[in-house]
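Assemble and predict.
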Amino acid sequence: MQKLLEVKNVSFTYDGKTDIFRDVSFSVNPGQIICILGPNGAGKTTLLNCIANLVPPTTGEILLEGKDMDRMAPQEVAKKIAFVPQFIVPSFAYEVLSYVVTGCAPRIGILAKPKEEHYEIARNSLAQMKISHLAEKYYTEISGGERQLVSIARALAQRPRVIIMDEPTAHLDYGNQIKVLEIIKGLAAQGYAAVITTHNPDQALMLGGYIGAISLDGQFSFGSSEEIINDAFLSSLYGIELHLRYIPDIGRKVCVAPLL
Amino acid sequence: MKNTVYKRTFVVLLLILCLCALAALSIGRLSMNPLDVYRVIRERLQYGAASNEAMEVALFKIRLPRVVAAMMIGAMLSLSGAVYQGVFKNPLVSPDILGVASGASVGAAGAILLGLGLLGRQVLAFCSGIAAVVLTTAIPRLLRNHSNLILVLSGIIVSGFLSSLLAIMKFVAEEQTELAAIVFWQMGSFAEINMTEIIAISPAFIAGTAILISLSWRINILSFGEAEAKSLGMDIGKMRGIVIACASLLTASAVCISGTIGWIGLVIPHLARLLVGSDHVRMMPITVLAGALFMLIIDTIARALLTVEIPLSILTGLLGAPCYAWLLYKQRTSVS
């Protein structure tokens, strides 16, 4: 069966000497959630940018529906892959609806402007995220949590097969973090594939999908969260003492640090 | 709801612009009332000549070219300001960010020193304005870094270098004649404009404005920054190239016949955003109309207020700076 997205032997280096990461291979299929873990500076975002077609990998290839992504037109890639950036600093006060409708850009002619049908798609995406009430608000005047939901709505308006998110919970309070994770889980249930980076291994356990971990020396390991995460692995990845415990009344494993 | 505001603003601005144009045609040393203007135009269209020859000359030879030029150049400078602000995602950017104005000034000063006539000055100003932008955009290519920041810094490098060249030219210029001519050119004026120049810059005006307005929605996407625009499938290099080329063409065409005129490219886009919001699809047409209107009012004051012509940059600064302060006051909560 043809894979939706296939990362094959991808390496990346900025200076040609030290690899940020090397020999990264994994595939992404519809309905899967893949969490990229790793300490600060390990190259999580760089790997994500490669997958999102923002920077080309130094070696290796990324196949999207069997086609080499590097040789595809950006517009074609954008019809399949949507990217939710980590932090958006708005330069202009666009209305939320005008912002979300830009998700339709890959399907609108270069000189054309969005029509009613595209605004309808944008309104549906907002409704799907349950934030229809924000449509007329200014993007600069909504909270960080709302902005994250608006960005995801914009990704949905792109009607992609893969949604890529860089630290989707980074600027959110604890409640909003869990809400966003729930949304990601819900999107996967609808058949979207999701690739996200996160600083919190516990989030990967909560999502329960696959994990790709980049260590500081550029080694990449990949597997389901069940098989890959254990005390030793986590402790060596982050260079501190970490424990994995099963909590029966919550029904999942959690990752915790000992008392300091 | 927002669309109704836009349509209403557009129609109201268009009406005010027409009324102001009619008023500007009536104002001048030879006083006419708007009815005279109407009669002269009607007679000219009907019989090919008007009964009052003095009025006909004042209207068609002197005032009409100025009124048309003021509106066109106001529109061009404001629109390119709006576009640069969008591309560089910075509302503080003005059309000379990439060195167009400094380049054109050097060209014009060179022509004055070489003793070339009006045509030579305009052609040289246009060419050196465009050359400055080409130089500015070549630096990021040499550095193999295509970020906006590098482009803006290249603009500062090129502008800085050109200002020094201009200073050398001013230094060696003959004080009473050449230096005065350079200084006056840099303050901007429509006094020497006639129909030939208007026809010469019309293609740039029409093509540049049409292309930019049809790309207005894409400029929204460009203003999100490189990563986001690329993830939406945009070919950043190509799109930014086209947009910058059009905006630079507009600026260079305007500056080469009128001299440098400050403030308008900075202030008018802000005014348009305040009126209809930041969406470039709506704010760009409003910018064109508001820019035309602002320049028309400025130029009419410049030629009618005193017996001598007041250089345009003096008035755009005197009116534009307080206007900008007022706009900031209105938007004070949303400026971080």
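Chain A touches chain B at residues 49, 52-54, 73-79, 81-83, 85, 88, 91-95, 98, 102-103, 105-106, 108, 110-114, 136, 138, 140-141, 158 (CB under 8 Å).
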